Amino acid sequence: MKHFLFVFTCLCAFAVLTLLLGAGCSRESDVIRHDSEWSFEPYEGEPSAVSIPASATLDSAFLCLYVTVANNQTIHVRRITAPWSEESVTWNTFGNGYDGESVESFVADTVRWMSVEVTTLLDDWLTGAVDNFGVLLDQVDANGGRAEFSSREDADSRPFLKIYYSIANESSVCAEEIAVADASIGELFPDVSNGSKARLTTGWSSDRDLKNQSLLGFEFRIVDQHPHSSNSARSCIVGAGA
């Protein structure tokens, strides 16, 4: 009899736990991207959007990248203006689908974490002022060699956004959004897709090479309630700057 009660109790506990986990994994539809039908279509798993409360005030946002090959050249961060898929984007299919005005820039001067502020762009995405198709890494100097960065396939140093926001009467919150899609495209092989590679590239590797660019996609969800603890900020990756 005791054995039966023990087994019955365990089964009940398992059922409750299953229901709780299932409720916690439900997907919401209000993802901030282009529209409700389109996404970045990453290789591995479903896109995962960071949740930001509707009542939050955006304080700042930084794009964080790990430089694996430095070239001391200026890398421009530009707003992408057209849909693309990590699985299939190429130089030809992308077709210069970006805003020529630089959001911000940085110098890939050494192998380390780099951060660049993208607060205005993130605010435009969240408010719907512009469509969220991600950002482009673009080097304009053909004589500067190639820079390389870790892609999201590199589990130890994935590119991410560090987002600081605040809510009235609560502590400032730091949220991280790892890129849900990224890919490099190259003019030398204009029909080749590199979405599964562990490195993102910009610039030129030699006199015989042609231009390389990299794309990164991020997604966000506006929620009614605070997704984090009300009295503590979520910790962010150490060493990423900002």
Features of the shown structure:
3 helices, alpha+beta, 5-stranded antiparallel sheet, 15% helix, single chain, disordered C terminus, globular, 242 residues, 6-stranded antiparallel sheet
Provide a brief overview of the structure.
This protein is of the alpha+beta class and 242 residues long. It has helices spanning 2-24, 91-94, 119-127; strands spanning 31-32, 50-53, 57-69, 74-80, 98-107, 113-117, 135-139, 146-150, 160-166, 173-178, 181-186, 199-203, 212-217, 220-223.
Note down, in words, how this protein is organized.
- The protein has 242 residues and is an alpha+beta fold.
- 15% of the residues lie in helices and 35% in strands.
- The chain is built from 3 helices and 14 strands.
- The protein has helices at residues 2-24, 91-94, 119-127, and strands spanning 31-32, 50-53, 57-69, 74-80, 98-107, 113-117, 135-139, 146-150, 160-166, 173-178, 181-186, 199-203, 212-217, 220-223.
- Strands 3, 6, 8, 9, 10 and 12 form a 6-stranded antiparallel β-sheet that branches. A 5-stranded antiparallel β-sheet has the order 5-4-7-13-11, with no helix packed on it.
- Strand 9 (160-166) and strand 10 form a beta hairpin.
- The protein is globular, with a radius of gyration of 21 Å.
- Residues 1-38, 41-47 and 228-242 have low confidence and may be disordered.
Topology at a glance:
Elements: H1 2-24, E1 31-32, E2 50-53, E3 57-69, E4 74-80, H2 91-94, E5 98-107, E6 113-117, H3 119-127, E7 135-139, E8 146-150, E9 160-166, E10 173-178, E11 181-186, E12 199-203, E13 212-217, E14 220-223
Parallel strand pairs: 2-14
Antiparallel strand pairs: 1-14, 3-6, 3-8, 3-9, 4-5, 4-7, 7-13, 8-12, 9-10, 11-13
